[in-house]
Design brief:
heterodimer; A: mainly alpha; 70% helix; disordered N terminus; B: mainly alpha; 9 helices
Chain lengths: 390, 361
């Protein structure tokens, strides 16, 4: 993997480049270990704990946090909120990179990565929710690539191809929402098959709905969070429209997230009531469940509300980070923390440093790719040749 | 794009056909019941007869060509620790302390009637075969390990240290031996007849008979008759099953039924979301259009009103101007008359003013 190409006249040995370089170096070494020595050489996975952080973080969190793509493009093109237009391209690019990295990360986790196309092209296990996930992610990655391509085509100056793709925007957006609804929810539904392993407070027939609804505010929060980062570090590349609209995006997405989170909070309570899990709330697991539900859903929802009412943009931005962490806590709870809760502590899974380092390596690849693309293609600004052609 | 009637019918036919194929594979997703393979074989494990000699483990290793363990099978000290199956071990015997004394329980794949692993596998690597086994096809396995997540009995194991051809490993019910008319290795090796091989229906009968003949000896439950939809391995025991490491909270629902709901929702989402979303988009468009029309109308109205007001004002001004003119004329006439009157008066007084008035006429 290449170092981020320095902009002419800039120093090569910036702190960002040094840290990135170290992470990439370690990542490459671990990659070699994984593919020469097998999964056992770098992971703490075992027969009781077949899924670790590479599924819990790279796949589940990665897909949830890449939801900004479908949420933003739906808001702009389907719900007609044109003032979010400048947020669409960064969100689509992040989603595309996010999904590409999810698929990339899967190559580390599955035993025979060269067979990843098998479920679609060789032997279709249609009774499996993982089949649904695989098919949707494959199709959605394709859709995201096409949705992203106008930026690349503008950069290349291929006007005709670009105009054809732009005309497909609405259809692609609808496709994207359908596919996202399906695979965001079926990631939760994956765990429906193991009622005896997932703690009752997290196991619910509503798991698919929980995953879908939480992906909505995960996506919105990520758009706010990424926008904030881009503002801070890539300010120079933004044009006036992006700078002018960004405050509006922060306020509007903060407001929408607060609403959706309130709904999510109530359906989580309804889930506890439907399965009559009240008694579990008084246990240690219940305390952790309440930390997740009150500390990472109810409170940030309230903070968003406050931020929108006071028009306090920095409160909204901090709440976005808080919410993103909350969604990660939820996904890790379902896949790792509350999963196999019945096993004695000695048989529980804890990731090895190498698994965590590999995940950091993959996230870093995403950041490097984002910087490479935004520094070249019209993502944070409108291409001067194509202005007002939407 | 032209869609002919024929092409449309072809599509409908293809869609309906795919539905049939899907329904044939996932019995749980419809309201059709899968009665199971009636003639399928299984094994009854009478836990009260097991003495923990581990000969079943040794036989299993031998018939399946599994690697030699670090400690020999006659080393019974291994029973001191709880073990589970792993990539080189398809079956293990564990020792539990129950009220009646030590109890030995053999663990292996239970070969569910509707297996969670088969339901979970996204490449159909697992299949329930009619003779009773849940078979595994290594040639399509991707190594996602979702089967291991799904299995309620924690049975499938994985070759984590194999970099190039790792596979899932589990008991095969000695399917190749069964199909040759031979007994599974473990059953053949058991010196105490703790394991009985036969058709599942007959095994259930045998189990019921034993429980009936020794009512004080057995717990009144055949483990595996209904657990997770039923299994081909059945257990009877003197100790409550939860005390000998077997979960009693698995329920009777086959794994496939747990995921049937969300799978069934897929066609609904695919069918309805585009309608809903296009509708939302169209309503938004329509609203914009109406708003734009109303705006245009309001502007036109305002323009018209302004013009009318201006005209009215103009008319008023004209009228006023006319009135002023009239007044001026009247005044002039009045002045003239007065002048005339004054002239007439002056004429009446001779020598004064007469020529003046004449001049005026």
């Amino acid at each position: 993997m290449a170092q981020p190409t320095p902009v002419p006249g800039k120093r090569l040995l910036t702190p960002f480049n040094v840290v990135t370089g170290c992470i990439l170096f370690v990542g490459l070494a671990l990659t070699a270990m994984r593919f020469i020595g097998g999964l056992g050489a770098v992971t703490n996975l075992d027969d009781n704990n077949p899924w670790g952080v590479w599924i819990g973080f790279d796949l589940l969190c990665g897909v949830a946090l890449a939801a900004g793509g479908y949420v933003t493009s739906a808001a702009c093109y389907i719900f007609g909120l044109k003032r979010f237009h400048s947020a669409v391209r960064p969100a689509i690019l992040t989603a595309f990179l996010g999904y590409a990295l999810v698929v990339f990360a899967l190559h580390y986790d599955v035993g025979r990565p060269w067979r990843l196309p098998y479920p679609i092209f060789v032997s279709q296990g249609t009774t499996s929710l993982l089949f649904e996930v695989g098919l949707c992610v494959f199709l959605y990655l394709t859709v995201l690539f096409i949705e992203y391509s106008p930026a690349a085509l503008e950069w290349l100056g291929w006007r005709r191809a670009r105009n054809i793709v732009v005309r497909l925007t609405l259809v692609l957006t609808i496709f994207g929402v359908v596919l996202s609804t399906l695979h965001q929810s079926s990631l939760g539904a994956l765990f429906l098959i193991a009622p005896s392993k997932l703690h009752p407070l997290w196991y619910s027939g509503y798991l698919p709905i929980y995953f879908f609804v939480s992906s909505l505010f995960a996506g919105m929060s990520m758009v706010i969070f990424e926008g904030t980062l881009a503002h801070r570090y890539l300010h120079g590349q933004m044009d006036e429209a992006h700078l002018d609209e960004s405050d509006g995006v922060v306020l509007a997405f903060g407001k929408a997230a607060a609403f959706v989170m309130a709904g999510y909070f109530f359906i989580k309570i309804i889930g506890v009531a439907v399965d009559d899990n009240w008694a579990h709330l008084a246990t240690g697991w219940g305390a952790w469940f309440l930390v997740e539900l009150l500390g990472f859903v109810a409170l940030p929802a309230f903070a968003y509300t406050l931020g929108v009412r006071e028009r306090n943009r920095s409160l909204i931005r901090w709440t976005a980070v808080w919410t993103v962490i909350g969604v990660m806590v939820n996904r890790l709870n379902v896949s790792l923390v509350a999963f196999n809760y019945h096993l004695p502590p000695a048989q529980r899974y804890f990731p090895s440093w190498m698994e965590i380092a590999t995940s950091i390596f993959i996230v870093t690849l995403g950041i490097v790719a984002y910087r490479l693309i935004t520094s070249r293609m019209p993502i944070l600004y409108e291409h001067p040749d194509f202005r007002h052609e939407h | 794009m032209g869609i002919t009637r024929r092409r449309f019918l072809t599509w409908v036919g293809a869609a309906a056909g795919s539905q049939v194929v899907v329904a044939g594979r996932s019995q749980a997703a419809g309201n059709r019941q899968f009665p199971g393979f009636a003639e399928s074989f299984g094994v009854l494990h009478d836990v009260t007869r097991c003495i923990g000699c581990r000969r079943c483990e040794a036989a299993c290793q031998q018939v399946n060509g599994l690697p030699e363990p670090e400690r020999p099978f006659d080393d019974l000290s291994l029973l001191q620790q709880q073990r589970r199956t792993d990539a080189g071990t398809y079956t293990v015997v564990n020792r539990f302390e129950a009220a009646q004394g030590p109890v030995f329980v053999k663990t292996q794949c239970n070969h569910c009637l509707e297996p969670a692993c088969a339901s979970a596998c996204f490449v159909k690597a697992f299949q329930k075969v009619p003779s009773g086994a849940v078979s595994y096809n290594v040639d399509v396995c991707v190594g996602c390990r979702y089967c291991m997540i799904a299995c309620p009995f924690n049975i499938p194991t994985y070759e984590y240290d194999n970099p190039f051809s790792p596979s899932v490993q589990k008991c095969t019910l000695c399917q190749p031996r069964i199909e040759k008319g031979l007994l599974p290795g473990c059953v053949l090796a058991c010196p105490k007849e703790a394991l009985t091989f036969g058709q599942r229906g007959q095994l259930l009968q045998t189990a019921r008979n034993r429980i009936a003949q020794h009512p004080g000896r057995y717990v009144h439950h055949i483990y595996g008759e209904h657990e997770m939809g039923g299994t081909s391995w059945l257990y009877i025991s003197a100790a409550p099953f939860r005390e000998i490491g077997m979960r009693e909270d698995l329920g009777t629902m086959a794994a496939g039924q747990l995921t049937a709901g969300p799978l069934g929702a897929v066609p609904i989402v695919v069918g309805l979301w585009p309608v809903l979303l296009t509708g939302i988009w169209a309503i938004g468009k329509r609203k914009d259009k109406i708003a734009a029309g109303e705006r245009r109308q309001a502007v036109a109205e305002a323009e018209k009103n302004a013009r009318q007001a201006a005209e009215a004002k103009l008319a008023g001004l004209r009228e006023q101007l006319g009135k002023e003119k009239e007044i001026a004329v009247k005044l002039a006439v009045k002045n003239a008359l007065e002048e005339a009157a004054r002239a007439a008066q002056a004429e009446a007084l001779p020598g004064n003013g007469e020529p003046e008035s004449k001049e005026e006429k």
